[in-house]
Design a protein that fits this description.
By secondary structure, the chain is of the alpha/beta class. It contains 19 helices and eight strands. The strands form two sheets. It has a four-stranded parallel sheet with strand order 2-1-3-4, with helices on both faces. A four-stranded parallel sheet has the order 6-5-7-8, with helices on both faces. Strand 5, helix 14 and strand 6 form a beta-alpha-beta unit. Helix 10 crosses helix 16. The longest helix has 24 residues. The protein is globular and about 65 Å long. The structure holds Double cubane cluster. The site of Double cubane cluster (BJ8) has 21 residues, from helix 7, helix 9 and helix 18.
Length: 431
């Protein structure tokens, strides 16, 4: 990585703490990612993006700001990025996938919050995340109580605009969410000084839909047996989607898909897949939270589908062709697309369970792992119903609850291996 120290200083980062954070990453990445064999060549780009995680992309954002552009940061797939790009601004996802500055966080927030919230608060308090420091505005939401209340606290450190997300999907909820998108348009226009027009909103929709289409294409390649890419690599790509330049990222994912589709075409139909095929569903896995996928994929299995917001929930549907739509039609379409996301914050949330059942068949999975961060009420509670519904349909499932520490890694591995043993026995029984 080039020398970015002056840039980090200019951003006001806490350099010793930031060094400690960056020093932790290469070892972890080497062990989890670079140790994999037979990786697609197209992964080189994504390895490069990770190697420059606090470098090149941050510089691009700084250059954008130097020209008068604005940067917005978000933590949820509900935030309508189309609106941000329509106004000529850039949207980046804030991560929160590693324990950081917990002692400081626990001075202002309760101990038993989910690790994701504590992580992003720790990044801000300790000033180690350049994306936080470069952002002009954080866009929060009222999805879960933990985030909703933490955004009030975060607002003491950086301006936060909170969008009120519905908890149900009745007609009144659609109207409310469309109204929130309109309110957000006003906020973005005021921040950027740019008017959102039919034409630039249409372009914003096309841009984000193109990224979603590329990720859908990537996901489709994983239906093949054997899947041409590891679940860890697919997760990494989805994590990078939140902060990389949208057009470049879309291009690189499509190039990778060309290679993966060729791999699938070249694979011998007689190839017997030794690895178990697993679906992971639950709480999003923010970068660099690779704990469960690594344990799964070093225990004789390959993740072929992720029902996560760092997976299918972020790209599952498109806003669609807006060629003949006016402003109202586009806002309505953005609203309808996002309300198809089956976050566990909704009640009831049967469509999520139905989707997991459908995708289990479509991706021919041997079993499903329901993953939830400790203290995440929406997903831990919903996990019971997900497991029950899968088992009623004869699909093997297990629930895991964990945090970002490595202390339970041994115990988790033992449980995962025992689960996989039963899956192998089933495979043998079913011939
Ligand atoms: S649409 S999943 S990105 S809210 S893990 S902070 S839910 S207590 S992240 Fe999410 Fe949007 Fe939903 Fe997706 Fe709360 Fe749970 Fe913590 Fe969570």
């Amino acid at each position: 990585m080039s020398d970015y120290r002056q840039m980090w200083t200019d951003l006001g980062l806490n350099l010793p703490a930031h060094d400690a954070l960056l020093n932790a990453l290469p070892g972890l990445y080497k062990e989890i990612y670079l140790s994999q064999t037979d990786r697609p060549k197209g992964m080189e780009y994504f390895d490069f993006v990770v190697s420059e995680i606090h470098g090149l992309r941050v510089r691009e954002l700084m250059d954008h700001k130097a020209k008068g552009g604005k940067v917005l940061a978000a933590m949820c797939v509900f935030v309508p990025e189309e609106v941000v790009y329509a106004a000529g601004a850039i949207c980046v996802g804030l991560c929160g996938g590693i324990d950081w500055a917990s002692d400081e966080v626990e001075k202002i927030l309760p101990r038993n919050l989910c690790a994701l919230i504590k992580s992003f608060m720790g990044f801000k308090l300790d000033k180690v995340c350049p994306y936080f420091e470069v952002a002009d505005l954080v866009v929060g939401e009222t999805t879960c109580d933990g985030k909703k209340k933490s955004f009030e606290v975060l607002n003491d450190y950086i301006p936060v605009h909170v969008m009120e997300t519905p908890q149900m999907k009745n007609e009144a909820d659609y109207r409310m969410w469309a109204g929130e998108i309109r309110r957000f348009i006003t906020v973005v226009e005021k921040l950027t000084g740019n008017t959102i027009t039919e034409e630039n909103l249409r372009q914003g929709i096309r841009k984000i839909d193109a990224r979603r289409k590329a990720l859908q294409r990537l996901s489709a390649t994983r239906k093949a047996s054997p899947s041409p890419i590891s679940g860890k690599d697919a997760l990494l790509i989805n994590q990078i989607a939140f902060y990389d330049d949208v057009d470049r990222f879309t291009l690189k994912v499509n190039e990778l898909c060309d290679e993966l589709e060729q791999r699938n075409a070249d694979a011998s139909p007689a190839t017997i897949e030794d690895d178990l095929r697993i679906m992971v569903t639950g709480t999003p896995m923010a970068i660099p939270n690779w704990k469960i996928p690594h344990l799964v994929e070093t225990s004789g299995a390959r993740i072929v589908f992720d029902e996560l917001c760092t997976g299918e929930r972020s790209f599952q549907n498109l806003v669609g062709d807006m060629a003949d739509k006016d402003m109202d039609g586009m806002i309505e379409a953005i609203c309808r697309r996002s309300l198809e996301i089956d976050c566990a914050c909704f009640t009831p949330n049967q469509p999520r369970i139905d989707k997991i059942l459908t995708k289990s068949k479509e991706y021919r999975v041997d079993g499903v792992i329901h993953y939830a961060l400790q203290s995440c009420d929406p997903f831990t509670i919903e996990g019971f119903r997900v497991e029950k519904s899968l088992k009623e349909k004869g699909i093997a499932a297990m629930r895991l609850e964990t945090d970002y520490s490595q202390e339970d890694a041994g115990q988790l591995k033992t449980r995962i291996e025992a689960f996989f043993e039963t899956l192998r026995e089933r495979r043998e029984m079913n011939g």
